[in-house]
Amino acid sequence: MTNAARMKILTPLDHAESGALNVVQLANDDDPFTLKDGIAGIDRIELHFPHFTDGRAYSQAYLLRRRLGFRGDLRATGDVLIDQLVQMERTGFSSAVLKEGVDPADAAREFERFPAFYQTDLSGAV
């Protein structure tokens, strides 16, 4: 299966201007299961990467998608590097906010580098 980029890549300005009715921000040490009872009413959940070496948001994304069934926009914010975008998408993120000055076209090309995978991702596709 080929990897068609489905993740929405945003600049900081795009992110600031994007509107959603019900947005929740989770810090890296927040438990996603606290959202369990109201998750159906949430439009977007923003998970923060305070530093690119801190990957707790990957685990949160997986839990939100797989265990809690979140279907809205799951957005990566903070220290988002373009070489992490493919893994972010594979763990459940649907959008990511690039750092100031990063070219969205460069980020989009990252998805072309990996046409297929051996392992399944969150969707179960290989």
UniProtKB/TrEMBL annotation:
A Pfam family recorded for this sequence: DUF934
Classification via InterPro entries: UCP030820 (IPR008318)
Name of the protein described by the UniProt record: Oxidoreductase
Domain of life of the organism encoding this protein: Bacteria
